[in-house]
Amino acid sequence: MTAFIIKRLGFAVVTLFAVLSLVFFIVRILPGDPAMVILGDQASAASIAALRQKLGLDQPLLVQYLNFLVGAIRGDWGVSMVSGRPVIGEVLSVLPSTIELTLVSLFLGVILGVPAGVWAAVNRNRIPDVVTRIVSLLGLSAPAFVSGIVLLLIFAIALQWFPVISSGQDTSFSGRLRDLALPAVNLALIMAAYVTRVTRSAMLEVLGQDYVRTARAKGVPAGVVIWRHAMRNCLIPVITVIGLYLGILIGNSVLTEIVFNRPGLGKLIVGALTQRDYTMLQGMIVIYTLIVVLVNLITDLAYGLVDPRVQYR
Amino acid sequence: MKSDLSIPTKASPPSELRAVSSLAWRAFVQAFRTNATAAVGAVLFMIIVVLAVAAPWIAPYDPISQDMIVRMEGPSMAHWLGTDYFGRDTLSRLLYGARYSLVIGLLSIVIAVAVGTVIGLTAGYFGGRLDIVIMQVMDVVLAFPALILGLILVAMLGPTMMNIVFAIAFTAIPPFARIARAPVIALREREFVQAGKALGFSNLRIMFRHLLPNILPDILVMASLWMATAVRTEASLAFIGLGIAPPTPTWGGMVREGFENILDNPSLAIFPSLAVLILVLALNLLGDGLRDAIDPKLRTEP
Fold it and tell me: Which value does ipTM take for this structure?
């Protein structure tokens, strides 16, 4: 177990290092001087030289690379080219709202998806199954901005249950809940679509096994067979994919945050893109890499908690 | 029909291409015959392809010509789906936009299939340390959500059509490497591969002529499912603002423009959104149906 954790940690560190190196070198290989890109074509030679010095671009490539790596590890990700504030501060200030959105949608998605998947599996090839399959296929076909716009049109514009543009200033519990509701439901529906499909096929697989038939033959009530006997084995693949889908959720949170104008990493990265905030962009890539690596690490370790048969190699 | 079933005679061994395509073709025919899902997906997809190809002839207006007199109009006889902020005809822009969605989706997946399959075949066939290194690298790439990786790449490279294709292809290479590698590991111990080796066939010949046909059906299923993801990623990037630059009509870009005026005229955002949804759904239906047909274990009819 310890060896396994060390191995996964090692892999996480290697991944992080590889991505950071890749980001650094791709940005340097690209045609065009970052200082010129930031300041535009009209900038004077003097201001470009000054910015080059400020960004450390006048130093040898290897020195820049080492500075970048050491800085990334120490949390010194440079200063935003637009706001002038440290990148890490900007990132950390919006990170909680993205995490809040992602975790709430993950939870809602599982709550919706697992029962729906079980319902479909138990009624295989009957109407509930067909309905769930069509709905879940729709859910995983719709890009997050499409479902987001539909929710926005129905619940914020037509029914006016929720604000179209939230001020984000209301910090009371009910105010935050109102801001969170639509974006979280949007992401949760997408998550539920994936979870439903996996639960359905995992459940079908488990229901065909001997021990389930034995339990039924013994006269164990159907509900107990499904939710107690079958559910435990059905959860293993479900948890595996929840880890995978957390990545999809993070990707979709970008689109959701834009549609619902909710502060978060997604809005920050889009702002950095449109304003050509080069240092901010680099910091965003680092934080996304960190999140992805962490999520994968946690998912790997979570297997063992659900499935004692997992061999930690 | 009869000739389809006949075993290839020793006198005329099927050519490499024929062997590959006939296997895949049989899988497809079987899929459509047994599976309504695949058929519905295929029909929807074909309709979109035909509309996209015919766009220059059937589009009622030029997709980028502006007509300031008819700005932001709702659907009418002259403009079936209304006009946008610049007075451009929404229907015409949708028809032309389909071309970009399809070309970017198709091109990026063709690249991903080609590169990924070669990587997976190589890793699986040779095994050992090479396999470990290749698959570790693939795992690193796979760790990233397609949208985030695509966003990072396009942001760094710049939003041109070829860069978008490259970025999306890059995100889709690892799954194809994986799907190609897994069966090859089992297949390489089989007699027909050993026989090929004993006969002195080159590794390349064994890989592409003898192993590839065996894994092709799986790859095609994956290709249609991943093309759905590619189309969705392209639309999402365009919505974020990393699509082909305006005034080129892309569906994601149209949603982005429509979204800015959503309070005045929601239809501008709704029509292109529906277009993306239908195309992605068609590809997912196709892939799902094909998978059920190819994998007998998952077939819906017992």
Answer: 0.82
**Dist. CA B136–CA B132, nearest whole Å:** 6
CA distance A133 to A96: 34
- Report yes or no on B47 lying in a domain: yes
Most confident among A206-210, A301-305, B101-105 (mean pLDDT): B101-105
Helix boundaries (H) for chain A: 2-29, 34-39, 45-55, 61-74, 87-122, 127-141, 144-151, 173-207, 210-218, 222-224, 231-259, 265-274, 278-306
Q: By the 8 A CB rule, do B290 and B30 touch?
A: no
pLDDT at position B7: 42
- Chain A interface disruption, residue of B239, B285, B295, most A CBs within 10 A: B239
Please count the residues of chain B: 302
Residue-number span of the structural domain to which B31 is assigned = 17-58+81-294
B39 within a domain of the structure (yes/no): yes
Closest chain B residue by Cα to residue A260: B259
With an 8 Å Cβ cutoff, is A153 touching chain B? yes
Q: Is A255–B280 a contact, with Cβ atoms under 8 angstroms apart?
A: no
The pTM (predicted TM-score) of the whole model is: 0.84
Cα dihedral sign, B85-B91-B96-B98? positive
Q: Chain-centre distance of CA A301, in angstroms?
A: 18
Domain with CATH 1.10.3720.10 in chain A: 89-306
Mean pLDDT over the full length of chain A: 81
What was the pLDDT predicted at A217?
84
| Interchain CB distance below 8 Å, B156 and A30 | yes
User: Span A89-306: which CATH code?
Assistant: 1.10.3720.10
Cβ-Cβ contacts under 8 Å between A and B: the total is 110
- Give pLDDT, residue B101: 93
In whole angstroms, how far apart are CA B55 and each of A50, A125, A286, B47?
51, 40, 43, 12
In chain B, which stretches have pLDDT less than 50? 1-14, 298-302
A281 touches chain B (CB under 8 A): yes
Q: How far apart are CA B65 and CA B86, in angstroms?
A: 9
Predicted confidence at residue B4, as pLDDT, reads 42
What pLDDT shows up at residue B15? Answer: 52
Chain-chain contact of B144 with A292 (C-beta, under 8 angstroms) = yes
- Residues from B contacting A (CB-CB < 8 Å) are 136, 139-140, 143-148, 151-152, 155-157, 228, 232, 235-236, 239-242, 255, 259, 262-263, 266, 269-270, 273-274, 276-277, 280-281, 284-285, 288, 298, 300
Contact check, Cβ <8 Å, A30/B240: no
Q: How far apart are CA B155 and CA B166, in angstroms?
A: 12
